[in-house]
Amino acid sequence: MKFGKVDHPELIDFTIPPDHPDTPVVLSKNKEGGETKVFVGCAKWNRQDLKNFYPRGTKDELTYYSSQFNCIELNATFYRIFPPDTYEKWYDKTPEDFKFFTKMTNEVSHLRRLNDKVYEVADRYLEVTSLLKEKLGTIFLQMHNNFGPKNWDRVVRFVEYWPKEFPLAMEFRHTDWFTDEQVAQELYHLLEENNIANVLVDTAGQRDLMHMRLTNNEAFIRYVGANHQSDYPRLEDWVHRLVSWKGMGLKNIHFFVHQNMELESPLLSAYFIKKLNHAMDTHLKIPKTSGQSGTGTLF
Question: Where in the sequence is the signal peptide annotated (predicted)?
Answer without folding.
Answer: none
